[in-house]
Each structure stands twice: as C-alpha cells, then as structure tokens.
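Can anyone check this?
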Amino acid sequence: MTGKIESSVVAQMTNSPQSVQAGKAGASGHARVGAVSEADVVTLSGQGANLNELVNVAQQTPDIDVKKVTAIREAIAAGTYQVNAESVATKMAHMEWQMGRS
C-alpha cells in the first residue's frame, strides 16, 4: 500500500510541534493535525511500563563483564583455564533443541 504525502502537511508538521487529533479523517482522507498542548498525556499500560523499565535497565547494564573477561584471559595465559566439556555439550544440545522448537 502506498500513499501520497502532501507538501502542505509535511510543512505543517516540520514547522511546529504537532500531533494527530483523534477522529475521522476529512474529505481528503487525511486526519486533522493540531498543536500539542500541555494537557496531552500518554499513559502506559502495566506491560508497557514494565517494558519501559526493562529497556532502561538494559541500557544501563554494561555489554561486557570486564572483570570476568580479565579473569578468563589471565587463566588462559597461565594455562589454568579448564573447559567443562559436559557443560558445553549440554548447553549446545539445549540451544539446538530450542532452535528446533521455533
């Protein structure tokens, strides 16, 4: 599905803060556009609020555990790092099983 964007609508939307008002579209098929007021409020559902909180926590969590990486590097360099083959095999089998379910 494609639609035409009229330049007058784009100009209105880029020149000042705007919001689309609820209601039926006019004869041209476009919804009315009006200015945002301080009375406009967005309320998230419980799930939306939980998702928002999870996103915030994820953004604040470092991607890499630097201490763990350093400890593993030192163990490898010292020749003391040991791989638990059974644990690796179990995790690989579980991953394979999960991939087969999707």
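Reply from J.R.: I decoded it. The chain has four helices and two strands.
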